[in-house]
Protein: Phosphate acyltransferase
Amino acid sequence: MTAPTDHTAAKAGHTLISVDAMGGDEGPAAVVAGCSLSAKANPDIAFVLHGDEAQLAPLVAKRRELEGRCEIRHAADVVRMEDKPSQVVRTGKDTSMWSAIEAVRTGEAAVAVSCGNTGALMALSMIRLKKLPGVNRPAIAVLYPSSNPQGFNVMLDVGADVRADADDLLRFALMGTSYARNGMDIARPRVGLLNVGTEEHKGRAELKEAYDLIRDQRESAGFEFVGFVEGGDISGDAADVIVTDGFTGNVAIKTGEGTANMIGNGLREAFKYSPLSRLASLLAYTSLMRLRRRIDPRRVNGGVFLGLNGTVVKSHGAADATGVSAAIRLAAQLSESRFNDKLAARVAATLTTEETPS
Amino acid sequence: MTAPTDHTAAKAGHTLISVDAMGGDEGPAAVVAGCSLSAKANPDIAFVLHGDEAQLAPLVAKRRELEGRCEIRHAADVVRMEDKPSQVVRTGKDTSMWSAIEAVRTGEAAVAVSCGNTGALMALSMIRLKKLPGVNRPAIAVLYPSSNPQGFNVMLDVGADVRADADDLLRFALMGTSYARNGMDIARPRVGLLNVGTEEHKGRAELKEAYDLIRDQRESAGFEFVGFVEGGDISGDAADVIVTDGFTGNVAIKTGEGTANMIGNGLREAFKYSPLSRLASLLAYTSLMRLRRRIDPRRVNGGVFLGLNGTVVKSHGAADATGVSAAIRLAAQLSESRFNDKLAARVAATLTTEETPS
Structure:
């Protein structure tokens, strides 16, 4: 079923995205629908779709816009949400996730997209793509809704690792600004280092050290450094890139998401409360939907693994076609801007003579 | 101006609250107005009000409900928001904050309330009240709006210290459950330990150790242990007490507050967008105000310093009369339930023979 004509077509002048079609909560139908949306919006992209050919072929055949732009690469096995990363690394060779990463490792595609198990995706990406020279800890970056003009801040790390020393935090700043430049078109990103206060004397020792390291690189690496920022600045407009360790970052974004959900549920109840409030919700419907879209995580769906030889975009496990499509759009932009080459060059340029690439 | 009759009246059968009347953003008028609200709502409380007598006396004289229930104790100096804690500890003897804490140190009042500089308040409280036996790191606990029946979770530490080891986290669990029992009337609080995943193998080493320590105390200390929780559970209903270190906790609550503010601003804009949406906001006004009250930080205004010989309630610096009154209500409940004695007994009971009280 792997049509050779498709394969050729996909390679001819197209930006090729490697997509893990299995493993999301919504199944391959949502992934194919997301590819279809992206294909309509962007005539320059094509796909290698990894997964069960028997399931995927009929789904792809139904989408005319995917014709000649979507190769199916069969993978018999699937990484499930409950699988342990260590196990997937040992025995996951036949999975669609492995196959999707493999297409990046061989250089066929620059970026892979998956809705699957985050831990397994990170572990496989690390083992198969390997770290860039100068990067000790790769990071997961997300876009967090903010009051900035662009509507979002880049935040990293949000959970690739539970620790980060001062040197890692400097690398996160470099990788995050590279991502902001190439993924969000911010020419000179403003970097903030997350802390419990904005005074220079506050916080943990490694943060004070990281403060100096990041400040000293701001000129040569072409970013602004706004210094320490606080939790409230993640959704604010003081910085474009928020740098923190993966433990703090993970807790922070989940706290923010949880709080937003709690308010959303409260609003729904408030609007159901009386006939008047039900009428109100109808009248305000358009405005409320506009707000919802602005802070909808599906629109910025995609944690990005940074610091590897190749880029991997992690889409929400529960992503529907809109979510998958947003992740693919991000993947295409990063691929077209040759993001990872620029990131690698940026990190390499800051290595001092004392340091050995690791 | 310190009327002896007032002083006597305040002591006769009343719960005496020591209040730092200066140092909040809104000035002493808001603090006195808050005392006045509390005095109307609760006939059993009385106040020692610390600050500039010349400013305070006319404010108190205007409030009939404070007559005979409010002693003014003159303090010439004020701790400002920009003062460094170390400096206040050395030279702050004449400040209203010092005086307010002193009334707790001498046993005159069980609880002090201040809207002032958090760092200075914590430093002064530590130095003057000293740590309880068995407590290495005191903690600041806050109530965070949640989908629990009580509407809030207790979370600690949110910034007394940037670090906490496994043993500290166990103490936080004990102090937090004591607070939930006495401040929130939850007979058997459910404790969750904040982590980046709920699986037992995840997270930092000290968290796995703390997991075992807390689990082993749950029977003897009369709480449930729900294990690891994530950032999303801070506003959820999985636990009543969320235990974490002061760095993570501080970032988390500020991230949540920031996100809530961003959504609130977005809602206001949405409702201003068109004539229809403006009409909608009028129709839904009552319901929206109900929601706002539910998640209003002023209602649960009051971080509480736990682990000292005496309780100190930190009210928001920007607290108005409603906010101050909420902090005073909390202070009164903690005082009436003899909370700090119970907390001290609870922590002391879990000291093993290997440990030396510090």
User: Anything to note?
Assistant: Chain B has a mean pLDDT of 88. Chain B has two domains: 1-135+307-337, 136-297.
